[in-house]
Amino acid sequence: MDNKMSIAELALRSEEIRKRLLEVVYRAKAGHIGGDLSSLNVLTALYMRVMNVDPKNPKMDGRDRFIMSKGHCVEALYCVLEAKGFITKELVDTYGQYMSVLAGHPTVEVPGIEFNSGALGHGLSLGVGCAIAAKMDGKGYRTFVLMGDGEQGEGSIYEAAMAGSNYGLDNLVAMIDRNGLQISDTTENVMRLESIDERWRAFGWDVVDVDGNDMGAIVNCLEGIDYANGKPHMVVLHTTKGYHVSFMENVLKWHHGVPTEEQYNVAMAEITRRIEELKLG
Description:
Layout (H helix, E strand, L loop, with lengths): L6 H22 L4 H18 L14 E4 L5 H11 L4 H4 L30 H15 L5 E6 L7 H11 L5 E7 L8 H4 L5 H7 L3 E6 L3 H9 L9 E6 L22 H20 L1
Parallel strand pairs: 1-2, 2-3, 3-5, 4-5
Helix pairs in contact: 1-2, 1-3, 1-10, 2-3, 2-9, 5-6
């Protein structure tokens, strides 16, 4: 695609969206802020550079598909959709209000969202269906699915994993936000996941590990995928829960939670300083 944002521009944009995300969650007094923050960089990379989508024509033929399987982190998606131009700031400001179309999980009533999601374990199955449809119709679009690491305890994921390999869905990219924490404890204490890589390779997937906090690493990975290798793709994004808000990073209680006024001011000041530094280069 022409006029791609540079890595530096994407890093700046992600921090601007991060600031907006904090504002949205604080105003709504609701949100899963920890996972929002850990997944924000990959969402920014996908919508601002990697995916073929058009906010002026959300149902464009041949568009790439994105499925937010970890739908409880929808606040991050709403803020990225706003930044891309799918939805307005005025609409996003209604999040958390009575009768707002912006629910606590993705809904197709919102432009840019392909499927209702958030019942954990279902997103990859939807992605497999999209990828099969593209193959059957001879279409070149790709399907991207973002899952949580706590979500990996859902058995339906592994049925989808078998199907993805069975049908050679090299037009399917699944991603795991591997921040190591879920609602009640670390993932390894709740339901041990390692070795994720060995597990997905055993299912016949092409697996790569990426620093999910590093914008350049994310972009290089997603743009380096071989979409003709006959295998579905798994990207394990090694991230930090609560990323780039110092007091939230790797702290379990921020799986969901709303900052106090004092905490909000501290977080906004941190992000504002980082934005100013990035603008200076």
